[in-house]
Amino acid sequence: MELLKNKSDQELIQAYIKGNEDGLRILIERYKTKVYTAIYVRVKDEFLAEDIFQETFIKVINTLKAGRYNDEGKFLPWVIRIANNMVIDHFRREKRGPTVVDGDGYDIFELLDFAEEAPENKLVKKQQDVDLKRLIQMLPDDQKEVLIMRHFCDMSFKEIAEVMDVSINTALGRMRYALANLRKMIEEHKIAFQLG
C-alpha cells in the first residue's frame, strides 16, 4: 500500500480496476475531507452528509467496476459532481430545498485542525470563527459555495468551475464578490480580524 501512495489518481484507479483494493482506499483517504465538505456545505447535517458520502463512493465503485469511468484523470471533480447530484437527488426525494442554518449549525471549522494556542488566543479565535461562520451563512449560495470550496476544501478555481458547471471567470467573480461582501459585513459588524 505504501508504494501506491505516491501514484497519480489515474494510476490508483487502474490499480483498483485490476483488483488492488488499496488503490481505491488511497483515493478515498486522499479526497475524503474535500468530498465530505462539499456535501456538508449543501446539506448542513452531519449524519445526512455521511450517508450521502457513502452513497457517493458506492456509485464511484460501481462505475469503476463497470468500466464506465472516463474523465481524463479528473477524479476529484468527477467525484464531487457525483456527490452534488446525490445531494440534488436527496432533496428531490424529500421535495424540499436545503435550509439555511445559522452560525450555530454550521460546523465547517470543526473539520479543520488548528495549532495549539494560548487559552486567551483560543477564545479570541473561537469567537472569530463563530462570527465568520455567521457572516458566511449570510452570503448568497453561489458565493458561499465558491468561498468554501476554495478556502476550506483547497480546490483550484478550475476544479470549482468544473464542479459548479461555470466558467473559471464566473468562479473567480463569485469569489471576488464573496470576499468583498465579507469585508463589508466585517466592517459593518466591527469584527476584528483580517480576511485574505
Describe this structure in words.
By secondary structure, the protein is mainly α. The protein has two domains: 2-94, Orthogonal Bundle (Rna Polymerase Sigma Factor, Chain: A), CATH 1.10.1740; 103-189, Arc Repressor Mutant, subunit A (Orthogonal Bundle), CATH 1.10.10. It contains eight helices and no strands. The radius of gyration is 18 Å and the shape is elongated. Mean pLDDT is 78; it is low at 96-117.
List the helices and strands and how they pair.
Elements: H1 9-17, H2 21-43, H3 46-65, H4 75-94, H5 119-138, H6 141-151, H7 157-164, H8 168-189
Helix pairs in contact: 1-2, 2-3, 2-4, 3-4, 4-7, 6-8, 7-8
Brief write-up:
With 196 residues, the protein is mainly alpha-helical. The chain has helices at 9-17, 21-43, 46-65, 75-94, 119-138, 141-151, 157-164, 168-189.
Q: Which features does this protein show?
A:
Rna Polymerase Sigma Factor, Chain: A, Arc Repressor Mutant, subunit A, mainly alpha, 2 domains, 196 residues
Strand content is under 5%
Largest sheet: none
Give the overall silhouette. Answer: elongated
CATH topology type of the largest domain: Rna Polymerase Sigma Factor, Chain: A
Helix residue percentage:
55-70%
User: In CATH, what is the class of the largest domain?
Assistant: Mainly Alpha
Q: Give the overall pLDDT as a whole number.
A: 78
Total helix count?
8
Order of helices and strands: HHHHHHHH
Stretches where pLDDT is under 50 for at least 5 consecutive residues are 96-117
Return the structural class: mainly alpha
Q: What do we call the CATH homologous superfamily of the largest domain?
A: RNA polymerase sigma factor, region 2, helix turn helix motif
**In total, how many beta strands?**
0
**Rg over C-alpha atoms, rounded to the nearest angstrom:** 18 Å
- Terminal Cα span: 38 Å
Domain unit count:
2
